[in-house]
Amino acid sequence: MRFGIVVDSACDLPAEFYAQHGIRILPISIHIDGQSLVDDRDPALIERYLAEDLGARGAAAETEPYTVEQIRDVFLDSLVLDYDCVFCLTITSTRSPIFEHARKASFAILNSYQAVRKAAHVDGPFLMRVIDSQTLFAGQGVGVYEATRLIAADTPIGAMRERLEYVAQNTYGYMLPRDLYYLRARAQKKGDRSVGLLSAALGSALDIKPILRGWRGETGPVGKVRGFDAGSKALFAYACARVRAGLLVPVVCLSYGGDLAELHGLHGYASLSETCAEHGVELLESPMSVTGMVNVGVGAVTLGFAATEHDAQF
Known about the structure:
The protein is of the alpha/beta class. It contains twelve helices and 13 strands.
């Protein structure tokens, strides 16, 4: 059976990983300052967003994910011919309509694929499973990584879906933002009042940075530190502790809203890299998607891993 994986462009994984595993991307359109960009994780677009300082106007941008009809067409045009079973793993449904769009599209796809495959002389049924990652950005990458391992191990479809849903339930995604004013402006644009003016002003005055968590569909602060450097050190030290305690999937995903050379220079990065290597855990790092930078600001760090339930300690 031929397996495929589809994700939305907010999923932060290295371009090489996408290419190696033939992972397809559902783009997200971004309308910013009179321009329309298509975020399909093209490295050239990420470089342009940073080089032209488009992030300075990103808080007012509009994002537009694929519609139900567009997702349906992507599948019927090629995916139902290229694969026999596709797993579609999306950003948390509590922060984006992509999961719901893909779920609704799956009904039309499964009702229409027979004629498409018959016309192309492709035998057998087509299966599609939509999984809500319940997290975002680097956190999304954990389930995708596990999906590639399950496919390589010839895991049965039912067991694969059960495992991916279990991983989603136990994936922790963390974010350390640089600019609370930007985060507040973006939150207000989307109607999210979780970052108030007072907290943004106080945070900037005292250089207090929140550590935010996306877990089981809920996003919110779980800690705060004084200074971005101290924040990265605390976040990476926490990830090191979880690696030593044992992860459910042998990977830590990292993304950064800027040049990865800056990520490598952050306090605690070297220790995290060494700890992952010592415990046989792969460290996958990538630039944050343009969609991610629009939503949380340039210079932010996100980190994801899967582990048994525990309390965050910062």
